């Protein structure tokens, strides 16, 4: 019996030695979690941040990826209502703004003699980059290395599978198809910057447009597979565009006011509310005819001019670089 075992054991070891093993997802997450808890044991991160392990195995404080879903609304010093304290501090971390808890509960609507529209819901660079990082992480977790008896799938293969699943047959993904692709993994798309779920859904749609704009080379608001792949290439660093106005550039998150409407710089574009002004509110910068109320058509034209000016400034930058 002993001789039989000594003959079989080397054969089994040889088989094991030539086999490429891949830990099951549950065990991989357990190992990663154990490694993280060990590396981050003595690391303290501020509010809205959490300790993560870098590729070099070093601790690093990053913005919290996802807050716990419990609801205890708070009003921020920026006048925005958050689902809980964690969401407030997380938003402060993502936007780089100093936001404090003003009081518990929803923010009260400010009553003023002159109605000024609240800031529009926008997808900031931080929102866009966070969503992109989540999708890349999700796809990388589905990559399967080649095994002994079966061929695996690389990052491109995995992305192509999803592209074919959600393409309607025209070999392109529009914003609706792109959103359906993201909804395949609710965890990846679960961006909750607002207390109101309807606003969060709008935020996700806006971030889809921001992602499409990243790699839409022919500006048709649809992505071919090559454009789709370029959007999620792990080694690609998305550009951080600024907004231009009156020969000045503005950082992401900057705001300006035109009559009773607010405009916010988001992902290199000015995004404005479109409220009909009943009272005259002095603009930040007065121009000829600024004391007259704008019609809807004039307002649309004004917003278009802002973004056209933005495009002109960027083209001038490119021309300067070429020279």
From TrEMBL:
Cell location: Secreted
The species this protein was found in: Salmo trutta (Brown trout)
Family annotation (PROSITE patterns): EF_HAND_2, KAZAL_2
Source lineage: Eukaryota, Metazoa, Chordata, Craniata, Vertebrata
Kazal-like domain span: 62-109
Quaternary assembly: Homodimer. Interacts with SCN10A. Interacts with DIP2A; DIP2A may act as a cell surface receptor for FSTL1. Interacts with BMP4. Interacts with CD14; this interaction promotes TL4-mediated signaling cascade.
Keyword set includes Disulfide bond: yes
Alphabetical UniProt keywords: Disulfide bond, Glycoprotein, Heparin-binding, Phosphoprotein, Repeat, Secreted, Signal
Purpose of the protein: Secreted glycoprotein that is involved in various physiological processes, such as angiogenesis, regulation of the immune response, cell proliferation and differentiation. Plays a role in the development of the central nervous system, skeletal system, lungs, and ureter. Promotes endothelial cell survival, migration and differentiation into network structures in an AKT-dependent manner. Also promotes survival of cardiac myocytes. Initiates various signaling cascades by activating different receptors on the cell surface such as DIP2A, TLR4 or BMP receptors.
Protein name per UniProt: Follistatin-related protein 1
Keyword Secreted among record annotations: yes
GO biological process: cell differentiation; regulation of BMP signaling pathway
Coiled-coil residue windows: none
Signal peptide (from-to): none
A GO CC term attached to the entry: extracellular space
Matching InterPro entries: EF-hand-dom_pair, EF-hand_FSTL1, EF_hand_dom, Fol_N, Follistatin/Osteonectin_EGF, Kazal_dom, Kazal_dom_sf, Prot_Inhib_GrowthFact_Antg
PANTHER family: FOLLISTATIN-RELATED (PTHR10913), FOLLISTATIN-RELATED PROTEIN 1 (PTHR10913:SF13)
Domain EF-hand: 203-238
Top-rank lineage group of the source organism: Eukaryota
UniProt-recorded Gene Ontology molecular function terms: calcium ion binding; heparin binding
């Amino acid at each position: 019996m002993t001789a039989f075992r000594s003959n079989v054991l080397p054969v089994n070891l040889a088989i094991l030695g030539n086999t490429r093993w891949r830990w099951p997802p549950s065990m991989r997450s357990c190992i990663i979690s154990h490694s993280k808890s060990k590396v981050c044991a003595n690391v303290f991160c501020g509010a809205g941040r959490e300790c993560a392990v870098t590729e070099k195995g070093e601790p690093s404080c990053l913005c919290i990826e996802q807050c716990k879903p419990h609801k205890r609304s708070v009003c921020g010093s920026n006048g925005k209502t958050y689902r809980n304290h964690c969401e407030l501090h997380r938003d402060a971390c993502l936007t780089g703004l100093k936001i404090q808890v003003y009081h518990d509960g929803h923010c009260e609507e400010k009553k003023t003699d002159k109605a000024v529209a609240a800031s529009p819901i926008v997808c900031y660079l931080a929102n866009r980059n966070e969503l992109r990082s989540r999708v890349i992480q999700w796809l990388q977790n589905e990559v399967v290395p080649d095994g002994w008896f079966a061929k695996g799938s690389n990052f491109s293969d995995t992305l192509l599978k999803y592209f074919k699943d959600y393409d309607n047959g025209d070999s392109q993904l529009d914003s609706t198809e792109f959103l359906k692709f993201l909804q395949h993994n609710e965890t990846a798309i679960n961006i909750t910057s607002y207390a109101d779920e309807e606003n969060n859904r709008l935020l996700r749609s806006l971030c889809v447009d921001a992602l499409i704009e990243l790699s839409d080379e022919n500006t048709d608001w649809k992505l071919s597979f090559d454009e789709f792949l370029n959007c999620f290439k792990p080694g690609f660093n998305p550009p951080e565009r600024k907004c231009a106005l009156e020969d000045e550039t503005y950082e992401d998150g900057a705001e300006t006011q035109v009559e009773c409407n607010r405009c916010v710089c988001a992902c290199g574009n000015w995004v404005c509310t479109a409220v009909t002004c009943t009272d005259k509110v002095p603009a930040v910068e007065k121009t000829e005819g600024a004391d007259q109320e704008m019609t809807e058509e004039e307002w649309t034209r004004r917003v278009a001019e802002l973004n056209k000016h933005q495009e002109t400034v960027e083209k001038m930058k490119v021309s300067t670089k070429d020279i």
